Amino acid sequence: ATPMSIMVGVGRGARSGVLVRDAEALQVMETIDTIVVDKTGTLTEGRPTVTRIVALDGADEQRALRLAAAVEQGSEHPLGQAVVSAAKDAGLALPEVHDFTSEAGGGVRGTVDGHAVLVGNSSYVLGEATDADRIEARADELRADGATAIHLSVDGNPYAVLAIADPVKETTPEALAGLREAGIRVVMLTGDNRTTAEAVARRLGIDEVRAEVLPEHKSEVVQQLTAEGRKVAMAGDGVNDAPALAAAAVGIAMGTGTDVAIESAGITLLKGDLTGIVRARNLSHATMRNIR
Ligand code: ADP
Ligand code: MG
């Protein structure tokens, strides 16, 4: 390759918010036919807010928020931060949490005021609870319009379901339209619940969804598609996306995302604007044409 053409391409990218860290990414980008896109923080703003608290029989909404937030104080997850903000906005003083532990892709637990409190997805929180199906149905109602529903249990008893909404980025529909026009297959990849993921995908016109994927399995999805002969780019923002970003032919990180994601990707999109993917592809094509 001609280093000069690459340098020109890198410079042009930077001026349009496409930061190229790895020259090879710029060369390969034009050959991409599939893009795997993380949901939370990539398609969506990644600034979720609590929109509803459904207290289960006899439970108290305010207590639910207070206990959930107390445990989530220890979490770095955007969902956890949403719960803590909601409690603060409600003017609640948060008790201390003891024995805090978190499980990636599952949730968090700890002891609050002497009670064992769990917050997270259904398998993490409900486990074998006898009325799990009935409670999960309540959660599914909240998920039907794209909210993430998380469960809260106190001393092993299901206590409440929290709905957390994360708006789609303003630029996402335009970016997806551009990718579709270029004939690129779009696959949504998320650790979130299937019902939520499908509701968001439907709204965005994405017809391929891989949901409930554990952090350690995200890169396998990229490897699988690659083994099927696809040229795969992966776009993501989180720590849990880093291995998948590294496994893809081109990794695309959000500038708004974690440092680990940015370091694992060849390209970073300033402000997390996904329309940069189409610009990166055009830039790659122009650069390679110059070289040829
Ligand atoms: P994504 O791939 O969408 O970024 P994650 O893999 O980080 O999602 O998390 C998957 C799911 O695990 C979340 O949708 C949520 O149900 C649960 N979860 C993970 N961390 C937390 C937390 N701190 N509080 C509550 N739920 C959590
Ligand atoms: Mg994410």
TrEMBL record:
Subcellular localization(s) per the UniProt record: Cell membrane
Family from the record: Belongs to the cation transport ATPase (P-type) (TC 3.A.3) family. Type IB subfamily.
Protein name (Swiss-Prot/TrEMBL): Cu+-exporting ATPase
Natural source organism: Raineyella antarctica
Residues of the full protein shown: 449 to 740 of 797
